[in-house]
Write a structure and sequence with these properties.
The chain has 54 residues and is mainly β. It is built from no helices and four strands. It comes from Adineta steineri.
């Protein structure tokens, strides 16, 4: 996944109660979309804080 040079995305093991973790990546929009919730994850390239917004 592309982002600013300072972007950091941390992944962690999901809890037992939240196992539907299927994500699709859209290369055109550079977004990860969570299949079940419809939420998208992108790196905020306008800031150098490396935050990921859902």
């Amino acid at each position: 996944m592309e982002g600013s040079k300072n972007s950091v995305i941390k992944l962690h093991k999901c809890t037992e109660g939240n196992q539907k973790q299927i994500w699709n990546y859209n290369n055109e929009t550079k977004q990860m979309k969570h299949v079940y919730s419809g939420q998208c994850m992108t790196a905020d390239n306008k800031k150098d804080d490396g935050k990921v917004h859902l």
